[in-house]
Amino acid sequence: MVVLAQRLREVAPSASATMAVRAREMTAAGRRIIGLSQGEPDFPTPAHAIEAAHRAALAGDTKYPPQDGTKALKDAVRRKFKRDNRLDYEPGEVMVANGGKQIIFDAMMATLNPGDEVVLPRPSWISYADIVKLAGGVPTWADCPSNAGFKLRPEALEAAITARTRWVFLNFPNNPTGAACSRAEMAALAEVLLRHPDVMVLCDDMYEHFTYDGFEFCTIAEVEPRLRDRVLTVNGVSKTYAMTGWRVGFCGGPKDLIKGMSNVQGQAVVGVSTISQAAATAALEGPQDLIAERAAIYRERRDLVVEALNAAPGIRCHKPEGAFYVFPDIAGCIGRTTRGGRVIGTDADFVMALLEEAEVAAVHGAAYGMSPHVRFSYATDTESLREGMARVQDFCQGLR
Predict the structure, then answer these.
(1) CB 171 within 8 A of CB 122
(2) Domain with CATH 3.90.1150.10 in the chain
(3) Burial classification of residue 8, based on how many CB atoms lie within 10 Å of its CB (0-12 exposed, 13-18 middle, 19 or more buried)
(4) Which residues pair with 376 in a beta bridge?
(5) What integer pLDDT is reported at residue 10 of this predicted model?
(6) Distance between CA atoms of 239 and 146, rounded to whole angstroms?
């Protein structure tokens, strides 16, 4: 008999991944599912990144990688941070990992002791809390309500920090809401953090290039340089360059932290595929025009989805500043019954009924810590979005 570790008892499989698996099963059974559950850009990886990977493989760059990243990619990461974020890191202050998720995992494993607390904005990405738990920490919450535009307020952050707080996570533009913080709003959060010198800050900037309507992205180490020595700035190529499958994340932070994280990574996976690192280097160093082009398309898709959802009975949808998600309130659908006879008691009931009856995959808000909401990703082709939104409207119109 297999007995799993105690640490896994509170760690559930990702709700978005679970929904994606169910959608794939239904697709394999011949049903035409519109998948809006995963943050998977539908754009191709840039051709020059693929060509760089091919050249690296042909040149024999197929041996064990350095634990913290190849010199070429680390240099490209340093230039990216300086170019985009005005952050100047030394070689020993940056590292590369198998996606942003592993960066976060390495950081928590390297720093958390049993019972240490980590403040997470709520709603927040599903994996944050589970990574903290796996590392022996305790996730705590700073609420970001819809009437505040899903943004973290200084007073909520202050109230969430205790004597046991080890880290605060910031993720703006946010998954699942798309909310982003202005420079003034980020500076106000920095003022709170300056009052707590023993608290580290993890700034997950994975969606930095996807902001709309002239909104200016900023990251906290840039906004408040006095925090720089306790900020880990996390990013990657997955979302920006549509390279989710290449598995390359990177970060900049204090040298001692990076050294500890590299040690964790060395024991877990050694390092990142050299071929993927070659592709990521080319993406960061090559033409950047495609980023703005794709952001413009995402903005059009956002507007399409927000307008369509606000026209659906029982749904209210906030227009986010960034990322490629919307997080509408479905309170007007709770307590009603679908055409197929399902009673919608929760947002989980809503998304399951939507999948089974309307063949649209989404993720329930409770998975991110806030109900009754639903997350829709608009990182898919526009025609599928139009069809998906028409199905959502028809589904809602059929509720009684």
Answers:
(1) no
(2) 11-40+290-397
(3) exposed
(4) 326
(5) 79
(6) 25
Place of tokens 């500890």: 260
CB 336 within 8 A of CB 347: no
Q: Is residue 19 predicted with pLDDT exceeding 90?
A: no
Structurally, at CATH architecture level, domain 11-40+290-397 sits in: Alpha-Beta Complex (3.90)
Residue 60 has pLDDT above 90, yes or no: yes
Give the Cβ contact number of residue 59 at 10 Å.
9
Model pTM score: 0.95
Residue 43 is given by DSSP the state: S
Q: What is the torsional sign of CA 388, 206, 24, 131?
A: negative
Any idea how long the chain is?
400
47-285 has which fold?
A: Aspartate Aminotransferase; domain 2 (3.40.640)
Tell me the DSSP string of 251-278: EE--HHHHHHHHHHHHHHT-S--HHHHH
User: 35 forms bridges with which residues in the sheet?
Assistant: 361
Contact 110, 264 (CB under 8 A): yes
The CATH 3.40.640.10 portion of the chain extends over 47-285
- Where b means 16+ CB within 10 Å and e means fewer, 337-370 reads ebeeebebebbbbbbbbbbebbbbbbbbbbbbbb
